[in-house]
């Protein structure tokens, strides 16, 4: 005889649901690195969008991007060389132009009419190189152009990009979810948000955040000699699916510092992406107005940012993909963000107003701030007690055996 269990909603077990990560990649501009790294007269290999690309600069300084595999016999163009304005295959020296046409074959009388390969729309801006991806093969959408950065290395009063990259073995959606996730800043990054608001509209998603310093949690900054922060004001906007410009004002003991943080990525395949990030800062007033000192300070700030991203990466490495996250009242608009993000994965004629209409959500921080203030105070008190006990033990005179 089988027992009958009359369960209620409160008794039901919540199961994690997830589908496989999408095999197609987001439509939009993707930053692939620093412009200066591609201007050395050599072809460069980029694993992206489930394939390999070759990137180089021609004699006019224009960045060119093609599929890396030669349409002749499959040689890897990124392992070849630049000859004039063309990339030469290391296998048989077929010369490919930035327009995707084979320009010459040194040992052949003529080039086959069908000697064409795939070209990728590319642009250089603010010292960065971008590639446009569209599953349907359409040209870049003018309204989704990446805006010029207000400040940054193009302004001589700002530092050059302090830049870093790392491969993350998970789907890109994991990093996008952070746009609405206020609570993880406290528990993962040891930050203390006090104001948090999201706005989604068209192809942009913005996070407005204000925060204060955590007096109980700054060992990482101390370890690298970074200056002590009192708080920050951040306006971070994704312009399309993968490129975030974060206008930051860091409030330090020595004063405020205006900073631009670039947080961007491109997919390697559906289960991994390249995370790229950099900082440029308005040069602070330093002794003798030394530019090197300002660059050193920017490098320390990037080191702090790197620590934060590595904390995220550790979470991503060990969590599971989840399509039905169970949320509490103080969580952000995860499902609304994912609807916004979906617009980049469907065909252009399938983008709906629900994905692009303006949506605003200001999180009520009353409960989180109360809980976090209490936790910080308890941690500070505990450390003070431990320090006092240690000092008292050290003050006790040591007796020696007669």
UniProtKB/TrEMBL annotation:
A single BP term in Gene Ontology: cholesterol metabolic process
Annotated PROSITE patterns: RIESKE
CDD domains reported for this sequence: Rieske_RO_Alpha_KSH
Domain of life: Bacteria
UniProt KW keywords: 2Fe-2S, Iron, Iron-sulfur, Lipid degradation, Lipid metabolism, Metal-binding, Monooxygenase, Oxidoreductase, Steroid metabolism
Tagged with keyword Lipid metabolism: yes
One GO MF term attached to the UniProt entry: oxidoreductase activity, acting on paired donors, with incorporation or reduction of molecular oxygen
Organism of origin: Nocardioides kongjuensis
Cell membrane listed as a keyword: no
Domain annotation Rieske: ranges: 29-131
Entries under InterPro entries matching the protein: Cholesterol_7-desaturase, KshA-like_C, Rieske_2Fe-2S, Rieske_2Fe-2S_sf
Stated name of the protein: Rieske-type oxygenase
Self-association state and partner proteins as the record states: Homotrimer. The two-component system 3-ketosteroid-9-alpha-monooxygenase is composed of an oxygenase component KshA and a reductase component KshB.
Pfam families: KshA_C, Rieske
Gene3D superfamilies: Naphthalene 1,2-dioxygenase Alpha Subunit, Chain A, domain 1 (3.90.380.10), Rieske [2Fe-2S] iron-sulphur domain (2.102.10.10)
Co-factor requirement: Fe cation
């Amino acid at each position: 005889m089988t027992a009958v269990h009359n369960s209620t909603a409160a008794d039901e077990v919540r199961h994690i649901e997830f589908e496989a990560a999408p095999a197609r990649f987001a439509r939009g501009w993707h930053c692939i690195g620093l412009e200066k790294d591609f201007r050395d007269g050599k072809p460069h290999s980029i694993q992206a969008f489930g394939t390999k690309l070759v990137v180089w600069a021609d004699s006019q300084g224009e960045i060119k991007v093609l599929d890396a595999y030669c349409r002749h016999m499959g040689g890897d163009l990124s392992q070849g060389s630049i000859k004039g304005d063309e990339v030469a295959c290391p296998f048989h020296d077929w010369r490919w132009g930035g327009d995707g046409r084979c320009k010459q074959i040194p040992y052949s009388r003529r080039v086959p009419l069908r000697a064409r390969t795939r070209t990728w729309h590319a642009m250089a801006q603010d010292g960065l190189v971008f590639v446009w991806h569209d599953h349907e093969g359409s040209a870049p959408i003018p309204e989704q152009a990446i805006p010029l950065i207000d400040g940054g290395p193009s302004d001589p009063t700002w530092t050059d990009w302090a830049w870093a990259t790392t491969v993350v073995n998970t789907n890109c959606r994991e990093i996008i979810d952070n746009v609405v996730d206020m609570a993880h800043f406290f528990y993962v990054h040891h930050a203390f948000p006090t104001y948090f608001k999201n706005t989604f509209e068209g192809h942009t998603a913005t996070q407005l955040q204000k925060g204060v310093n955590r007096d109980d949690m700054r060992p990482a900054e101390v370890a690298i000699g970074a200056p002590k922060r009192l708080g920050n004001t951040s306006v971070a906007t994704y312009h399309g699916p993968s490129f975030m410009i974060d206008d930051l004002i860091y409030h330090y003991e020595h004063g405020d510092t205006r900073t631009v943080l670039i947080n961007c990525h491109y997919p390697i395949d559906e289960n991994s992406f390249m995370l790229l990030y950099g900082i440029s800062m308005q040069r602070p007033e330093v002794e003798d107005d030394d530019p090197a000192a300002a660059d050193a300070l920017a490098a320390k700030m990037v080191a702090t940012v790197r620590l934060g991203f590595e904390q995220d990466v550790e979470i991503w490495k060990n969590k599971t993909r989840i399509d039905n996250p169970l949320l509490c009242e103080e969580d952000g608009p995860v499902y609304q963000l994912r609807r916004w993000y979906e617009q980049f994965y469907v065909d252009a004629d399938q983008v709906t107003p629900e994905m692009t209409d303006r949506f605003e959500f200001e999180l009520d921080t009353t409960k989180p701030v109360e809980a976090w203030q209490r936790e910080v105070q308890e941690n500070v008190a505990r450390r003070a007690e431990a320090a006092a006990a240690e000092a008292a033990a050290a003050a006790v005179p040591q007796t020696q055996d007669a």
